Amino acid sequence: MNLRKRFHLIFALIILIPLTSMIFTFAFAWIGWNSRIETGDDLEAPRYLHSVLLEILSGDYDEKSMADRGIVFILDNRGNVLYAHPQLIKVYPHILDSKWEDSGKELYGLLMEDMPQIPFSFAVFRYRGDAGLAIFAQSLVSVHSSAINMVIKLVWIFYLGFILFPTLAMSYFIRPMAKSILDLEKAVGEIGKGNWDVTLPPFNKGKRHPFAHLIKAFDQMRKELKENHDRQQRIMMAISHDLKTPLTSIKGYVEALQDGMAQNPEDLALYTSIIMEKTNLLEERISDLIHFSRLQTTEWQSRFSEFILPELLAEAAGIFRNDALIRKRRLLQELNLPSTQVIRGDRKMLFQVLENLFDNACRYTEEGDTIRFSAKIIKGKILISMEDSGAGIEEAHVPHIFDTFYRADSGRNTRGIGVGLASAKTIVKSHGGDIYYSHTSLGGACFLIELPLPL
């Protein structure tokens, strides 16, 4: 059963359940009301006859007032007349002297024959252990009938309200909700087919909509999925391009070797060295892709543990100092953190971030340029910076430098494939921090890492 049929079933049940309950309630109430026997003062009789029968049978009644009480005739179980209406005695003077052994049926038939315009009824009672029969005009129960009718009307009003309120609520709340859900279901189906530009159910921003937040969240999810899909397409194109370039070179030189173009040892050595260089480049790019793909999962975050950050920074500074000497760069070191400062994270991954930033600083500076590596605590956060006196990054490229496979300057050393800074951002954010680009007094690029202090 699909979602639409389920909603139709719910709407039907909202109406049918209270309606069915109402019918059964009235049926049982009517049966119970008419069959109810009231017991008290040695008398068992229908509740609407109990008080008047008790007055007559106990002899505590006024003849004149009793004339309008509706009781016509009362017989005991032996057919003896216990009471007769004064008007009946006038019509049938000998009625009191008669004996109606057949449970009053003959008398009831006589009354119905002589006075058909008056609706008569009869009821069985028990007084002091003996059974009896009472014949009465139905007007006797008119007061009770009015009360019953009033109760019935009130119950009808209650049940109608019980039906109308859910119906109105269904129209005002459930129907728009159902329509929105069905529209969302349709949109999900379209997205499942790859239609990322599906139109979501509209809603008036000025009116309160039951699924406004859900629709906004769903639309945000749709946009993010579309962006991820487009990003994956760009990633695949970038991977294809970055891997194809060295492969094409390798293939070209291998074909040249096969064709015998390298006739002397010098040419052979040159070709093989180029092939080795392109192979190393290809291997490096594949390693970068594997590293980047691992970062997209959360499994590596299970290795988080507490470690002393100044020890990591001192170790990194020692390595950077040796590399700076080899590359003929000037390294400044300003590490001003408490020696026991502890953070929680992946020590190896954070070291890779620092290593990547230092390698970029060396790559985009010249011999004799300065690189400054610093760390301090500002406004309750750990701030680590890597600055250089190189050419820096053009303003047009700054918003995109952390995008995957983005390379700001094709004229620079393009050995990487543009995942270094994207990986760094992923690692830092997984530690609850952030990384961003800024200007520096040295005149070049400055990358700042913010990490939260542990609670």
Summarize the structure.
This protein is α+β, with helices and mostly antiparallel strands and 455 residues long. The chain has helices at residues 3-34, 47-58, 63-66, 86-91, 105-114, 142-192, 212-258, 265-295, 309-327, 347-363, 420-430; strands spanning 37-40, 43-46, 71-76, 81-84, 120-127, 130-137, 305-308, 330-335, 342-345, 370-378, 381-388, 434-439, 445-452.
Summed up, the helix count is 11
| Uncertain parts | none
Determine the fraction of residues in helical runs and give it as a percent range.
40-55%
Biggest pleated sheet: 6 strands, antiparallel
β-strand percent reads 15-25%
Radius of gyration: 49 Å
Name the structural class.
Answer: alpha+beta
Tally of discrete structural domains = 3
Read across the widest sheet, the strand sequence of neighbours is: 1-2-5-6-3-4
Structural commentary:
The protein has helices spanning 3-34, 47-58, 63-66, 86-91, 105-114, 142-192, 212-258, 265-295, 309-327, 347-363, 420-430, and strands spanning 37-40, 43-46, 71-76, 81-84, 120-127, 130-137, 305-308, 330-335, 342-345, 370-378, 381-388, 434-439, 445-452. With 455 residues, it is an alpha+beta fold. It folds into 3 domains: 1-210, no CATH class; 212-295, Signal transduction histidine kinase, dimerisation/phosphotransfer (DHp) domain (Helix Hairpins), CATH 1.10.287; 304-452, Heat Shock Protein 90 (2-Layer Sandwich), CATH 3.30.565.10. Strands 1-2-5-6-3-4 form a 6-stranded antiparallel beta sheet. A 5-stranded mixed beta sheet has the order 8-10-11-13-12. A hairpin with a 5-residue loop joins strand 12 (434-439) and strand 13. The longest helix is centred in the middle third of the chain and has 51 residues, at 142-192. The chain is rod-shaped, with a radius of gyration of 49 Å. The two termini are 52 Å apart.
